[in-house]
Amino acid sequence: MLIHSASQTLTLAGGPQRGSELGDLGLIKDGALLIRDGKIAAIGTTSELREAYPAEETLNAAGRVVMPGFVDPHTHALWAGDRAAEFEMRLQGKTYLEIMAAGGGILSTVRATRKASLEELLAQTRPRLQAAFSYGTTTMEAKSGYGLNTATELRMLDALLALNEETPLDIVPTFLGAHAFPPEYKENPQSYTNLVCDEMLQALHSWTTGQNNRKGKAIPLPFVDVFCETGAFTLAQSRQILESAQKLGFPLKVHADEFDNLGGSSLAAELGAASADHLVVTSPEDMAALAASDTVAVGLPCTPFGLAEPEYTPAQEILAAGGILAIATDLNPGTAWCESMQFAIALVCRYMKLTPAQAIAAATINAAAAIQRDHVVGSLQVGKRADILLLNVPDYRHLGYRFGTNLVHTVIKNGQIYSNEEKYEF
Amino acid sequence: MLIHSASQTLTLAGGPQRGSELGDLGLIKDGALLIRDGKIAAIGTTSELREAYPAEETLNAAGRVVMPGFVDPHTHALWAGDRAAEFEMRLQGKTYLEIMAAGGGILSTVRATRKASLEELLAQTRPRLQAAFSYGTTTMEAKSGYGLNTATELRMLDALLALNEETPLDIVPTFLGAHAFPPEYKENPQSYTNLVCDEMLQALHSWTTGQNNRKGKAIPLPFVDVFCETGAFTLAQSRQILESAQKLGFPLKVHADEFDNLGGSSLAAELGAASADHLVVTSPEDMAALAASDTVAVGLPCTPFGLAEPEYTPAQEILAAGGILAIATDLNPGTAWCESMQFAIALVCRYMKLTPAQAIAAATINAAAAIQRDHVVGSLQVGKRADILLLNVPDYRHLGYRFGTNLVHTVIKNGQIYSNEEKYEF
Fold it and tell me: Are residues B21 and B91 in the same domain?
């Protein structure tokens, strides 16, 4: 199939964009793309490709912007229950401790998720994936971390495998057993840390060999992530978990510097983690460490927005230091129930002062690098997956400029077309 | 038709909600509604209505939340062109004067709108109305004000009449000839003010009698609005225009206190305007004047968000003074291209500290009062229009809690059903 007559085709060709390189869209005017077998087979101008492939079935982009599908490299998309009541309590001025005392906070999601069967988890998560997809996310990282015991954590990962199979999205799984301390280990955080290292990571490794996962065959090792934060895992505990995971061959990620700087982002750089995420109170030393590494700095703008906190990731400083910056939604039931990467772009234009071009690169090729998928998605290049968006706008800068709605007209995933056009017209 | 089995039916019955009354949802559990001839004919519980109307055709709300359609009481939905390039310049740190020098700002929209034919205006505006409608807005105020000469201002109002006829939305028109000074009057603002009072308002009045409007018959008088602000119309000029309009019988509105407090909101209260809008730097004295009147205070949260300004309408103080608070999108091409009242609700929960219940009342019954339509829309009551939303959520507090996507499952306008359900499922 030949997609032609795009006003602007954003190829994002050339790999992850570091520091001041960020924002190179590889823009082709009046561009066209050839799709074969779910992959991009050729790319050029409309006249070039129509001449080269005159008999090809065509899709007229009709002056729309064509770009790679969004990659959302940090989500907690899988959970049971909701926390709408907690949101209201926060608006009424209730403190975090009062909310905890009323049964709220992350452990309320843990309770609901532990109770949920695999089928219930799937049923509650599907609409979120549908929303993310219709807003243009074609590859999504998603974490466990609402189980906090071996059985529920593996059930969550099985659910992610199932969703990867049954939906068009590529779901990239991450094990986040070190998300919080479960109530039964409230007084023994070190014991829980040891449990993660000794029991859970072993069980996870066995699971990936196919011993007990739902596919019954070996699957790639998921990421292992740690929430390194005051009230969650200390730097020493984070190191213990990440080093244990690394010994078993798992690729790493770190939640760092959301509220307090414990050194998590420098640890991520030191261990060669794929990414360090949140990064609100990151120091110049941490930024230098990240910039000297291939660890991607992932800003999560929906989280301060969701909490109405004024501080966002210091993106300009990270770029000035030479870091690789990506953005993600952080989709989760507590602080950021937002499936839309378009909205993350609108936020980072305003609160991280990224241009639309920078935000788009951070949401595609650099986001793919944050989950080590930049060789297969994140740009429009020959051989990559045909994960493509047609935007209902004449200029890419409408991303960022406009907010709160959906500018995606058509999502193409592995070459298959899904249209967002309204069922009714007026 | 009988809509039944809503988890929560928000009736908002009882008229505009003043001060601390704000947030009375009139919630019915397991509610039902009877629709006849496009109006609400009965309301109660599912068991009551199914017993009373056993043979009625039914629509199963299936545990969704049912509520009145949103009323968006302040938009500039009609314009030609876009200002994406200006948005990017602002992100790059360009000043307002630099943007003006590069041909940006409101006058760039005036240039494009003057050049556009009625048909071009309609074609460019329709997708915005479609977006607003799919996000749940069933009644929308919309202003002229990008013509700034008599012919273009009336063409804009004719376009609004046409869109009111051809779309399911109720479009409530406002004349905003006093939006800015056109380039040809740059050196003579008082002359332009006199032109508005002497020529434009007379022409507008003749237009409403059917002499030259596209319907060819008498129509209700539109609102007359003034942008009372430093760089726009002084307090004296605003008074001159509003008093001229009032003498001709026009109902009034005022843009007041967006950047500087010139006294516009007290003027609105003094003259009995339907609303005073923006209200960011409103003083305690102004709030007292508004509270002593029936003039609705309309907060426009998308505008500071769009500009990344930290200051929003001081909603808590307005409520404490006893004012009637509504919210609107301010949809416009310069500062807030956002069609979604759901997103306005997400903003006011965070930045005006309204609860979801208060935000919903401000977006429905109080918004209807801000455009003097609270007798026909804004609540689910017998005799009112069957303008109804089914939300894809189990609890109304998901409005506000969740952001950046569309929670509306079905829009019902005058009893007619429009479904947002995806064309594709996975």
Answer: no
